[in-house]
Structures are given as C-alpha cells and as structure tokens.
Design brief:
CATH topology of the largest domain in chain A: Rossmann fold
Oligomer: homodimer
Helix content of chain A: 40-55%
Shape of chain A: elongated
Strand content of chain A: 5-15%
Radius of gyration of chain A: 25 Å
Largest interface: A-B, 41 and 41 residues
Strand order of the largest sheet of chain A: 2-11-10-6-3-4-5
Number of helices of chain A: 15
Chain lengths: 316, 316
DNA sequence: AGGCACGTCGCTCATCTGAGCAGTCGGCAT
DNA sequence: ATGCCGACTGCTCAGATGAGCGACGTGCCT
C-alpha cells in the first residue's frame, strides 16, 4: 500500500498503461510502441501499478450470491461446488427457505441424466425439494430412516417420492424409523427386502443432499430426538457434528458410536463413497460442525449463508 | 452488464477462476489442471466473468491526483503528460495554488539537464514558479512581454529570473510590454538586441509552461487588458482561446489577428515548434478554450482540476 | 429418420509475456 | 582519475496466451 516517491507523471503513466492493458485489453507490446517505451518497462510499470494499489481488482456480484466468499470456501476446502447466499436474515426458517432455493438451483444446474440422487432427511433438504424444478429422469434414493419432528410436514419418504415423481425418476424408498431402541431391531429392519433394496442402491448414488447438525440442543434434529444418555454418550466420545446420522469429531474424523448400530441409514463408508455430497448448513452456531464436516472430506458441495461462511473461514 | 442465465455453480466457478488468475496470479494452465478443465475453457470463463461485470478493475488513487481522469485526457488528446488535481475547491486563487504546486511537481519530475524551459506569463505560471524546486541548471527563456495586472506581484521577467536563478541556469529575458499601440512600435521593439536575443533562443526551447485564456471577460488576462475594439474584433474573427498570446478558434485552428502584430511574444509557428508545452487552465468556464487548445496540437502537457477535466472530456 | 442450425469444445500456430541475466550509467569513496 | 556499488535498462528463451478453425453433439424441423 505504500509508494516510494513517485511524481505525478509517473503515476499517470502507470495509470495510462494499466488502463490500456487491463481494461482495454491492448497488448503490452502495442502500448510500448505507442508510448515509446520498451515492453519490459511497460510490464514493470503495470506491475508497479498493481503492487502500489493503484489498480484494484474486485470480484463482486449484484445478487443474492456472494461469489467471493463462495470461491474462497471452495478453494480452502477443495469443494466441487460452493454457494454462499448473501442474506442478512438470521431467523432459521427464512434462512432455510433461501438456502433451499439456492440449493435447488445448484442441483438443477449440476445434475445430469446420468446422476443418481440421494436425499437425507433435513428440514433444509425438504425446503430444497419444494423449490426444485423437475430433474432429467433422475432416480432418487432415500438415505435415512424417518424422523418425526413436531410440526414437520414431510418425512424422508415424502421428500424422496415428491422429487422422484416430479422428475419422472424412480423413487427408492423404505418405511423405517431413523432410530430404534436396540441394535437387534435395527439389524432386523435392515434385512427387510424393501430396506435392503434401497440400501442396495446406495453405491450407485452420485450426488446427495444433506444437512449438517451440531451436537448441541436445538442444533441437530437427531440430537433433539435422542435420549439423554445417548446425548451424553456422544458428547463423551467427542462427537461434534452429525451429517445425516454420520458422526464426526471436531477434526472431521468419524466417531464410532453404539447409537449408530441402532440407526437405519447411510453409514460413514457409504457416505464417503458418494462422489458429491451437498450440505446445507445454516445458523452461526453450527460453525464448528461445518468445519468438521468440511475437514472430513465427505462434503463436496456447500450451500450456506454469509454469516456462517465467514465464521467458517475465519479460522480453520 | 447483463448476464444470460447462469446458475450459481457457473457463477462461482467464474469467480474462483478469476480469483486464481487475476488476483493470485496463477496461470490459466495451472488452474485448468486443478479444476479439470481445458485451458481454453478457463480462458473463456474468465473472459465471461469480465464481460458480465463479475470482475471489476478499477484504477484509483488515494491522493490529490485523479489518475483515471488524467489517463483518459492523455489518451484522448494524445498528451505527453496530464495531471488532473482532485480538488473540490472552486475559488480561482486556491485552484491556482493547487495547480501551481502540481505543475511544479510535474516539471521537476520531467525536466532533464538537456532541457531549455520557456515560460509564458500567467498567474498560474507564477504560482508554479513559487513551488518549483531547483532545476538542473536549466536555461529559462521568457516567451511573452510583460502584462501589468492590478494586484499581480510578478511580471514575466521576474518569474523567469526567479526560476533561472534558483536553478543555476541562464535567464533569457527582455523588458518590453506584451502589447503596444501600433505595429510599427512592436516591430521596433523586436529589433532591440535584448529582445532579439531572447527570441533567438525560442527554437531551442524544449519545454514551456503557459496558461490558457478564454476570450471572454475575466477569463483571459489578455482580454481584460485589451481595448474594447480589439475585444470585439477578435470575437468577430472567431477567437475562442488565447494561449499566451496565440489565438485559436473553437476548433483549435490559429486565427490571424491584427492585434498579434502589436504584440511582443511568441507566435503560433514558434509555439508549434516547442516539443512540449504544458498548459495550466482552471475554472469550469474555460472548457471550450481548453478543448480548442488541446485540438490545436500545441499543447503536450496539461495540469488542471477535476471539474474542468470532466467538462473537457464530456464532449469533445 | 434425415438434415439443418446452433452452440460448445479443444486443437494449431503465431504472438505475447515473464524470469532471469548481462550491459550501462551515475554517484560516491578512495 | 579510478574503481565499486546499486539502480535501471533491454535482451534471450521458454512457457503462457489468444484468434481462428474444424469436429462434435444436441435439439429441432421437415
């Protein structure tokens, strides 16, 4: 930002060359001829203009998407897709709507006829489904059992069927709860032909959508639905995030839990095998969970809002 | 400024590539490898980012000089040097001071030991002289006779001597008024050894400084000092600007006047021969005169203020 | 089904560009 | 004067880049 001593002529010369090259796109050789300089001097002056801050390059967008934050997130965490929605709102329901719409747009844009879509259950996923335009005959696979939420309208099954039917693709669903009281029941349920059939499709899933939960009250549907002993047990194991039933510690490493044996849903290895998992986290409290999920390498796409994105980037 | 339809993923991809290339300076080939694209696609996406306005390149400067306007003026009128001082002031005296300082800086920067400096009489030139640091032994030549201004402190002779003495160069001065009552007297004066000697140095002048006057009351020292009949005569001839006694019409063509024969000072041909004439106009009213002077091709350097620069550029 | 129009993609080739290097000049102490 | 130092300049050469082109795929109309 400093500048040694530069007289006005030098300053204006730098500006003229910077204009000619960077804005009008003329070649340095052409400018050199016009100004009677060597092309090397032109190059040095333009470099000096950039270094001294005379030229500023700024990436911004008139619209709902903060492209700069998005790009930085994508770069930092090697994400395939990243969408940061620029909204000042901080009430959870309206964030969910906005992110749902953005995620729907993203999915509509990136999905191809060859993809197989997996959907986990999360309120944001449900919001996305509502904004989604028909996909090109995409088969849709249910990733998790149903979790009944007070006031929630759709179950995981409903969302999967809705998306599949509007897209003209097959819905691979099963009716089972997300968690059951004991491991034996869970094993039995997984043997059910319907469930086994849906799970059999998991390896073919190429894109999936999920939420991210923080293992704290009110920050994870699964937490809120768990027993007090499970909550504490997972805390003790160092669980920080849950990604549709897959538990991660603060560094993104998978945590094996006894609870997982009592759940009907995708497991860590299966999730890892999905080429692109798109997550839709929201709410500033979830920053640590989002970082954990990003570090895990499970997540290939992120749809979130400015405040959370900034927190996630701020230290990581 | 428009943008066809681009989904969020496309938008963010453009932003990521633009960041990588334009800001971090990585090569398109490197980015292509990293993103799994061809270098051609990378180039096209970056072009699209520029065209769609996603990337903005801005040239600005924290300081007294509006480098962008300066560069635009220089480009439009093929000026060697152009300095637009960014000042909100519009009172003539303070403008004069600011421009004088800027012109002094410019002159100090661009003058070399081989230059010969010519100075016309103008209040802005006088202001410049006061801010000028010593030049490298530059000879200084007086271009015009003396014009006595009510309240003006320096004559053309004083300014030339002052600059020359502080620089350690020779002062080529002559004592004669700028205008005399008849052509015969003017001829006689030009024969004077002292005057002839100074005029003999004119062809060696490499850089000169002058003001620009608009042929209207209060916009030209020369106008104000002229007789009513001269004023009207020159109006009739289409005189728009005077550049230290050289008269130009609105398109910058020289206007031959009978008044010129009664003046002791540089003429059009001699002025045209000066490699770089730096003009210091100020005051928004003078815009037409400045355009005329710039179109004439006489002026190679301009020092002015934002408001006038903008007017000059706005249509030309 | 075939043909057409359009858009997209990646190639070739000539040009542009950057990194590093050697020559030149002015300032300065000896 | 003489020789050194640092700043600046323009060169070489290899790598990066852009313009233009044909190939390909897609959707649409006949």
């Amino acid at each position: 930002m400093d500048q040694g001593f530069t007289g006005p002529a030098h300053l204006v010369l730098m500006a003229s060359l910077a204009r000619g090259h960077l804005i009008q796109g003329r070649s340095k050789i052409e400018l050199a001829a016009e100004f009677g300089l060597s092309r090397f001097k032109v190059a040095r002056l333009i470099d000096e203009a950039r270094d001294s801050g005379l030229v500023r390059i700024e990436i911004r967008h008139h619209g709902a998407i903060d492209v700069d934050l998005s790009a930085r997130l994508a770069e930092r965490y090697e994400l395939t897709h990243s969408v940061v929605v620029d909204t000042p709102e901080d009430d959870a329901a309206s964030l969910r709507e906005h992110l749902g719409r953005a995620a729907a747009e993203l999915l509509n844009e990136v999905i191809t006829a060859k993809d197989v879509l997996g959907l986990a259950w999360a309120r944001a996923v449900s919001a996305m489904a509502r904004s989604l335009r028909p996909l090109p005959g995409t088969p849709v696979v249910q990733l998790t059992g149903a979790l009944t939420v007070p006031g929630g309208r759709d179950t995981s099954v409903d969302v999967v069927r809705e998306v599949a039917s509007s897209s003209g693709g097959t819905a691979h669903v099963f009716y089972a709860p997300f968690t059951v009281p004991d491991a034996a029941t869970a094993r039995a349920l997984r043997q059910q032909p319907e469930v086994a059939r849906a799970f059999g499709r998991l390896p073919s899933v190429t894109k999936a959508v999920a939420g991210i939960g923080l293992w704290e009250p009110g920050q994870s549907t699964l937490y809120d639905a768990s027993s007090e002993s499970d909550r504490q047990e997972l805390h003790r194991l160092g669980v920080c995030a849950d990604v549709s039933g897959v538990f991660l510690d603060i560094d993104g490493r998978p945590v094996h839990t006894e609870l997982a044996e009592r759940m009907i849903g995708i497991d860590y290895a299966q999730m890892r095998a999905i080429p692109e998992l798109i997550a839709i986290p929201y709410g500033v409290a979830k920053a640590p969970a989002v970082r954990a999920a990003l570090r895990s390498g499970l997540v290939g796409g992120l749809v979130t809002h400015t405040a959370l994105a900034r927190l996630v980037l701020d230290d990581g």
